[in-house]
Amino acid sequence: MLASAGYKYLKSSRRVLSLLEYQCLTMSHIKQIQSHLTVSGTLFDPFAAGRIISFCAVSAHGDLSHAYLLFLSLPRRTTFIWNTMLRAFADKNKSATVLSLYKHMVGTGFLPNNYTFSFLLQACTQLSDLSFGILLHGQAVRLGWEAYDFVQNGLIHLYASCNCMDSARRLFDGSLNRDVITWTAVINGFAKTGQVEVARQLFDEMPEKNVVSWSAMITGHAQIGFFKEALELFNDMQIAGFRPNHGAIVGALTACASLGALDQGRWIHAYADRNHMELDRILGTALIDMYAKCGCVETACRVFDEMPERDVFAFTSLISGLANHGQSATAIEMFTRMQKEGVRPNEVTLICLLSACSRVGLVEEGLRIFESMTNIYGIQPVVQHYGCLVDLLGRAGLLEDAKRVVREMPLEPDSYVLGSLLNACRVHGNVELGEETVECLAERSLDHGGVHVLLSNIYASANQWEGVAKVRKGMGEKKVKKVPGCSLIEVDGVVFEFVAGDMSHDFMDDILLLLLDIDKHLKSLQLEDDDNYDMKLE
């Protein structure tokens, strides 16, 4: 009789569990099923409990907290149930919980399998927890799971994201099943660490490229200053039939900002608008930076105002752009707005503000901002902040105060700090302090060509021609050469670079002829002005 009743309940429970295969279930249905299993006494059966937990933890209509409570109440758990909970927390980006749960799993005597390692390595990658990842690698080797695809790909992702490219490459070269995601992870790792040549070699060998791999190459080149190459890759990506994603757009805008490629930057902005890309903080800041560096400050302000959310990077980028284009007063007003919106400045924001004050001679405001760094924001000044402070005082003619800052600053002054002081000496004709500053630079092996030229100009401003000759002679004896200046210009979406003294450009003859015509035209205008001036005197 009891056996017959037990069989009846088991049959009924299996029929109830089959309901979990329906896609339209809600948590209300799940709780009814759970109640039935509880009454029948089969809820704590590992198979039944695993099915309920799997739905609650992984399904889009589930409830992870409910799954976790049921999981804790189970007297017996299986590896499948442990893996289900680990997967659920990993999918919710609760990486710390994943690792904590795994320690509990091992502590209760369960060993991980290849699926377990995939969730654990995903969590380590999200946390950039290399040390725990290495521990897991060792366990995978001991238990014989290292060669499995899930484990191997997870390890490659972990090492690549933590910039351990030797380990990532060793596993990658030994892998027999490399998918597009694994290829992209390794390429991104090499690009991120500045090894773009290795990244490019792998990228060219990649059997199947995707949007993410293209984006990784563009971003990697932009990050290390290969801006022309970044834009070339951006164009090649579209020619290959791929639509640029958010990362590719931001990387290309970074390159446009550094090259001054305004036309291409505008095209990218229009592309983002056409494709209804969200103007988030990253994209908005990239656009602000691009327009500001290309001289379109009004457009940068318009993009800033259109952003639904603005963070410290967006504010800093606009403050920097305003300060660099002669709108220092507006930059300081923007800082006031930043404070009203509750956004705290960072180290770079304060450098931009000090620079803005320096350009318009707001000494008291600049000193107030410098003091607020530690008093209000808890930011310790670094060498760049002291350099801005020296520049602020030096431009205002307060050379003794600037000198005292250099002498009393707790950090070793670098070329920027001493260079700011030297430039102030040139502007205000302080030969003695200029000589002293150059000696300080020479002691630190920072006396490059530009330093000697500045000192020569200081002597020339003071009509001390013997000093000029001495500096020039010294430069010749030490074979010191001034770094040639360069300029960039964008024509039809292509950026051209011109270096002083370089005559190798293909159109140099045409350029020189055009310059001669411009020179003649300017001279004729000057003669006309002189004639008009003479007529007025008569």
Task: Describe this protein with a few key phrases.
single chain, 538 residues, mainly alpha, two-stranded antiparallel ribbon, disordered N terminus, disordered C terminus
What does this structure look like?
The protein has 538 residues and is mainly alpha-helical. Helices cover 72% and strands 2% of the residues. It has 29 helices and 2 strands. The chain has a two-stranded antiparallel sheet with strand order 1-2. A hairpin with a 2-residue loop joins strand 1 and strand 2. It is elongated and about 100 Å long. The chain starts with a helix and ends with a helix. The N terminus and C terminus are likely disordered.
What's the layout of helices and strands?
Layout lengths: L1 H16 L9 H14 L5 H13 L5 H10 L5 H13 L3 H13 L6 H14 L2 H14 L5 H13 L3 H10 L5 H13 L3 H10 L5 H13 L3 H13 L6 H14 L2 H13 L6 H13 L3 H10 L5 H13 L3 H13 L6 H14 L2 H13 L7 H13 L3 H10 L6 H14 L2 H13 L5 H13 L3 H13 L8 E6 L2 E6 L8 H30 L1
Antiparallel strand pairs: 1-2
Helix pairs in contact: 1-2, 2-3, 3-4, 3-5, 4-5, 5-6, 5-7, 6-7, 7-8, 7-9, 8-9, 9-10, 9-11, 10-11, 11-12, 11-13, 12-13, 13-14, 13-15, 14-15, 15-16, 15-17, 17-18, 17-19, 18-19, 19-20, 19-21, 20-21, 21-22, 21-23, 22-23, 23-24, 23-25, 24-25, 25-26, 25-27, 26-27, 27-28
